[in-house]
Amino acid sequence: MASISAPASDLSGDDLAMVGLRPLMAHTSGRSDISIGLIDGPIAVDHPDLASENIHVLPGQVAGACADDSSSACGHGTFIAGILLAKRGSAAPAICPGCTLLVRPIFTEAIPDGEVIPGATAEELADAIVAVIDAGARIVNLSLAFQGPSSNGGRSLALALDHALKRGVLVVAAAGN
Description:
Number of domains: 1
Helix content: 25-40%
Number of strands: 5
Structural class: alpha/beta
Strand content: 5-15%
Oligomer: single chain
């Protein structure tokens, strides 16, 4: 099963305090009416540290649940789901375990032609952004990167981000891995 916990030294109480999460975590665990769109790899929906009753997998070209818990796409998707939705008593307590997670994977578990990192096109990302927003996401989490150019990718992404803006959806993107 994919691991969602980081080494204990990475999650000490001092680390949580250093980034200012303790006051937030003491104040709230989130609410089910707050929906977060997770665009990543598939996740281990049955992972014991995840609040699985709050996870909804949206249809797409990539399966939402992991077929191979050891794949890098499953590991990354499950880890990010854990940051957002892991139970508070777990080794890596989440930011909002009470929130609803709308999962729309774009990274497949099967990596073609010896590639090291799963990939997706900008068009696939744009479609996933629109799908999670249309399903009710108020926040969209993007922990991903692209490795090459796309002929229509920029336009597709601009339209998807415009859609988010028009709906008042917050898009959070990782600055690096």
